Amino acid sequence: MLSLSIHSPTTVTFLIKPISPIPKSSFSGVKIQHFCSVPVATRASLSPRSSVVMMAKREEEMKEIRTKTTEEINEEVVELKGELFMLRLQRSARNEFKSSEFRRMRKRIARMLTVKREREIEDGINKRLSRKLDRQWKKSIVVRPPPSLKKLQEEEAAAEAEKST
């Protein structure tokens, strides 16, 4: 319970009465205080220019994706998913890789699929038909190695050819 009593215009007294008394124990407790002399940077304290640049890059990428045909988008989605699979293999084999590539590729795939869905909506294709077409498209994909694996195989073949000569 909190009560307020005013005796004079300049004196204010607060009387605090606990609702339930806290039992005393033999443990006095430990007080830990953290003092940080270096200010911690937050997203709000970062310059607004960095977010503007990121937004501009994203819009540029979306414009680039929108200029492609649906078939080109499908091909690139398949390639990016293959690259993502290769990254997962590298991670599981504990090879060196850039962990930021996971997020970058997933975001790029999502942007492409978003543009693809926008086009379907413009054509009047409903959600149910879209999923049916998507399942058909996924079944029609021919599994082939991603470009990074092809490049790696070519480099290995060139190294073998160099050794043999």
Describe this structure in words.
Helix content is 60%, strand content 8%. It has five helices and two strands, in the order E-E-H-H-H-H-H. It is extended. The chain has 165 residues and is mostly helical. Strand 1 (2-8) and strand 2 form a beta hairpin. It has a two-stranded antiparallel ribbon with strand order 1-2.
- What's the pLDDT, averaged over the residues? 76
Order of helices and strands: EEHHHHH
Total E-strand runs: 2
Q: Kindly, what is the distance between the CA atoms of the first and last residues, rounded to a whole number of angstroms? A: 93 Å
Number of helices: 5
Unreliable residue stretches: none
Oligomer: single chain
Structural class based on helices, strands and sheet pairing: mainly alpha
- Strands of the largest sheet, in order across it? 1-2
Helix content: 55-70%
Report the sheet with the most strands, covering strand number, pairing sense and barrel closure: 2 strands, antiparallel
Strand content range: 5-15%
Rounded Rg: 31 Å
Bulk shape: extended
Keywords:
5 helices, extended, single chain, two-stranded antiparallel ribbon
How would you summarize this macromolecular structure in one to three sentences?
This protein has 165 residues and is mainly alpha-helical. It has helices at residues 48-67, 70-92, 100-123, 127-140, 147-164, and strands spanning 2-8, 11-16.
